[in-house]
Amino acid sequence: MARWTIKRSHKRKTAGRNWLGLPNDLTLMIFSRLSTVDILASIQQVCRQWWSICMDPLMWRTINMCDLGIRNSVDYKLEKMCRNAIDRSCGQLEDISIEYFGTDDLFKYIIDSGCHKLRRLRLVQCFHQMSDEGFCEMDEKLPLLEELDISLCHYVSSIALEAIGRSCPLLKSFKFNNDGSKKEAFVIVQNMSNLRHLQLVGNNLDNSSLSATLNGCPHLESLDLRMCSELELERILRIRCDEQLKDFRDSDALLDGFQLWGLLDGFQLWGLSYETEYSVAVYKYQCEKRDEKEKR
């Protein structure tokens, strides 16, 4: 009888990657690419080493609390997390983005926490929770701020814009996408003459406001005026915009990424990010406006 030899296949034991063995500098760099909520809610609780790394002020030069997909039920916890992250930065904070849960009190906390190195600030889609009050108390506490986005903060008016202009002399990029008035456009050019980039999607400015913007902001490179329904560009004004600006988008310009007309009907705006939600709303407006022109 033939003897059959059965060879047993031994599975190679593959050792799992030892993340704890990485140098602290490399671990810190990896963590800095994660969301603020992930770090505070889970990452820092893995072990003492990671807890120690998460306490390093260099970890908190950037705080990103946007695109979270969560709403009012956890707003208080988000604000508490945000304050915690600001405290850990120990004045090293350079970039902070907040969506939905920004308030006057939270903004005051940012400017009163010694964040003098802050260069970029986004407080978007905070609706009725942000007002002029917080901005009027800036008092040059953010002297290095270069980029500011306060889109869809409905209670922010020209009073706040004046305060921003006085307090942020280095401001180069400003986004105020809102259903604002012509007055706000004039206030911007009077108080933010060093702007390079300006976005006023949905504003009610007209041709005179646009001319004032071109005159008052001589360094302006890009201007986004999509969904500005009061704007009716004359030929001379159009030529001037094309010559003076590197990137100009008027009220008829389409938004990037939404070229399929029939795609929009199935979109559920609730829960989308600020950029996506606002882009869809603007694009729908563009479609309706073009349909009206074709009927004429």
What topology, given as strand order, has the largest sheet?
1-2-3-5-7-8-9-10
State the end-to-end CA separation: 96 Å
Helix content: 25-40%
The CATH C-level class name of the largest domain: Alpha Beta
CATH topology of the largest domain: Leucine-rich repeat, LRR (right-handed beta-alpha superhelix)
Count of all domains:
2
CATH superfamily of the largest domain: Ribonuclease Inhibitor
Secondary-structure element pattern, one letter each = HHHEHEHEEHEEHEHEHEHEH
Radius of gyration computed on alpha carbons: 25 Å
| Residue windows where pLDDT falls under 50 for at least 5 positions | 4-14, 257-274
Instruction: Round the mean pLDDT to the nearest integer and report it.
Output: 82
Strand content: 5-15%
* Shape type: elongated
Major sheet summary line? 8 strands, parallel
- Structural class of the secondary elements? alpha/beta
H/I helix tally: 11
Sum up the structure in keywords:
single chain, 296 residues, alpha/beta, Leucine-rich repeat, LRR (right-handed beta-alpha superhelix), 2 domains, 8-stranded parallel beta sheet, 11 helices, 12% strand, elongated
